[in-house]
Design goal:
By secondary structure, the protein is mainly beta. The protein has one domain: Beta Barrel (Porin). It has a 14-stranded antiparallel barrel. It has a two-stranded antiparallel sheet with strand order 4-5. The protein has a two-stranded antiparallel ribbon with strand order 11-12. A hairpin with a 5-residue loop joins strand 4 and strand 5.
Length: 315
């Protein structure tokens, strides 16, 4: 079926290894700070990007924060995200977010290869996030997500959710007094629980008088665990993540961030064996804290480099 083929190609275009799974574009980081650190971010997530990496860590954010990011991909593809997060009484946070994928024109063709015109396509996920600190050591949270995909007249949607948590350990608060570590964080997250794309080729072929078939593409459940260590008077941050999902093997992520000053940071890492680099700037403007982040990552299996740009405003 034409629509089955096109949907498969669309998913594969965003998958960069062992490809073609539903929601494959969600495997790609859209946050430049996280990307610069090799995507080892599960046990960091102390900014607006917590809503995408670990909802259980979002309670770390103490300012109303709005942010967005854009990732430029090869073959006329791109990823975008927007989010806003509100702290609640210094012990919790609630937020909303959107993740979107875009690509160049898709040309529809008949079974004989004749072009039928350009097909519209949309791929997005919207979520509501809640996180709460239950003690000075532990924060837990989750989100409810709405997954939506449309290609021409064929649409699929479903609800899913993520859950996550984080342990926060400091000297004399879980760590021995006099420890050289300023902050040790341990975290875990389970993503894409119950997420799927049910669709039917009949939505497209019906206008030509043909029957279609029903399909359900399941978004693989993903489990990620991580650790991060902050030391040298909070100037150096090192992090590592391990990840596994239902469809693929175990993958590793490693990275770090060094504060040159309060206003500038350098980042580097390895994401599934590929190098990443990034830089970030924060310059207070009155009570507002704007930040700009840029990162580059070597594309998985495609060669070349991809760029990610992001911003946030803390109020």
């Amino acid at each position: 079926m034409l629509v089955a083929l096109l949907l498969g190609l669309f998913a594969t275009a965003f998958a960069e290894e062992n490809g073609g799974y539903a929601g494959a574009y969600l495997q790609l980081s859209m946050n430049p700070r996280a990307t610069g650190m090799g995507n080892a971010y599960t046990a960091v997530s102390d900014d607006i990007s917590a809503v995408f990496f670990n909802p259980g860590a979002a309670a770390q954010v103490q300012r109303v924060t709005f942010g967005g990011a854009y990732r430029d991909l090869s073959y006329q593809r791109s990823l975008q995200q927007l989010a806003i997060l509100f702290p609640v009484r210094g012990e919790a946070a609630i937020g909303v977010s959107a993740e979107m994928a875009s690509m160049g024109d898709i040309i529809g063709r008949t079974s004989r290869g004749e072009p039928t015109g350009t097909l519209d396509n949309t791929d997005a996920v919207f979520s509501v996030v809640f996180s709460r600190r239950f003690s000075r050591f532990l924060s837990v949270g989750g989100d409810v997500r709405y997954y939506y995909k449309k290609l021409e007249t064929t649409a699929a949607n479903s609800a899913g959710f993520d859950v996550g948590g984080m342990l926060h350990l400091k000297p004399d608060a879980g760590l021995p007094g006099g420890s050289p570590i300023d902050l040790l964080r341990l975290a875990a997250v389970v993503r894409n629980i119950a997420a799927k794309y049910p669709w039917s080729t009949g939505d497209y072929w019906g206008k030509y008088g043909y029957y279609g078939t029903a399909h359900t593409d399941k978004v693989p459940v993903l489990v990620k665990v991580g650790a991060s260590v902050l030391f040298l008077k909070s100037k150096l941050l090192l992090a590592a993540d391990g990840e596994v999902d239902e469809m693929r093997g175990v993958r590793g992520y490693f990275g770090g961030e060094y504060k040159l000053a309060e206003q500038a940071s350098l980042r580097a890492g390895l994401s599934r064996g590929k190098p990443t680099f990034g830089i970030g700037f924060k310059v207070p403007v009155g009570k507002v804290m704007p930040s700009i982040d840029i990162a580059v990552e070597q594309a998985q299996n495609l060669g070349g480099w991809e760029s990610i740009f992001g911003f946030s405003l803390g109020f």
